[in-house]
Specification:
The protein is of the alpha/beta class. The chain contains 4 helices and 17 strands. The chain has one domain: Metallo-beta-lactamase, Chain A, CATH 3.60.15. It has a 7-stranded mixed sheet, with no helix packed on it. It has a 6-stranded mixed sheet with strand order 8-9-10-11-13-14, with no helix packed on it. The structure holds zinc ion (ZN).
Length: about 240
């Protein structure tokens, strides 16, 4: 049982926080966007209604179970096209409800635009939303202090490294500063992307630094934690 707490970050950004994961409600002048739905269904529509009367669209950063708990309340779900198969496999929605998006798609919320950045690696169709006017990135699970779960179905190390490299370039290019992740501390500085890249390098080059966890994957293999700076990654 997860208790849902509403958090106001200011600047038209709210979270529905369930402790281990959070969903975001991002307000524009004409529309609001719900970014994920948390792990456990709750009365999302009235929680949203207490914040805004604006029409709300649902976007999913990806289809892991801790992000799709409340999708049953929505008839229309926006998600990157590479995530559709996985989302269908979760059996919580109909294909007719899903609107597949491509890299670069823009949600126009009215005086706030959110651009889809395809971030394959954590899952094939993971996607972050960039608010370039305010230099913010809603990162899903791609950037966070973590530990980022990089074991199990859908994960791809080399894609994830490529994605992190691209996001670090965007950060250095000042396309965003602050990151709003779905797990752990929020918001965080986008510079921690570098720590995640270093964690991935540890996995490849210095596995002796790994820390054993009590967790096992589906095949009974031990999960290890790799840490650098502020970030961690769980990996086999
Ligand atoms: Zn997650």
């Amino acid at each position: 049982m997860f208790k849902t707490e509403t958090v106001n970050y200011g600047g038209g950004i709210y979270a529905f926080d369930q402790g281990m994961v959070r969903a975001f409600l991002i307000l524009g002048k004409e529309r609001a966007l719900l970014f994920d739905t948390g792990i456990e269904p709750f009365d999302l529509k009235s929680a949203i209604g207490e914040i805004t009367p604006l029409p709300v669209i649902l976007y999913l950063s990806h289809s892991d179970i801790d992000h799709i708990g409340g999708i049953g309340e929505f008839d229309t779900i926006y998600v990157h096209e590479a995530e559709v198969k996985r989302l269908m496999a979760a059996e919580k929605t109909e294909k007719s409800n899903i609107i597949p998006l491509k890299e670069g798609f823009e949600f126009d919320l009215g005086e706030r635009r959110l651009e889809l950045i395809h971030c394959p690696g954590h899952t094939p169709g993971s996607g972050a939303l960039l608010d370039s006017k305010n230099k913010l990135l809603f990162s899903g699970d791609t950037i966070s202090y973590g530990p980022v779960y990089m074991f199990g179905e859908g994960r791809d190390d080399s894609e994830y490294l490529r994605t992190l490299g691209r996001l670090l370039d965007m950060y250095k290019d000042e396309q965003f500063e602050k990151v709003y992740p779905c797990h752990n501390t929020c918001p965080i500085d986008g510079g921690v992307t570098e720590d995640l890249i270093k964690c991935m390098e540890e996995i490849r080059e210095r596995p002796e630094n790994r820390i054993k966890t009590p967790m096992k994957d589906n095949e009974g293999r031990t999960v290890f934690e790799y840490r650098k700076g502020k970030c961690g990654i769980y990996h086999i």
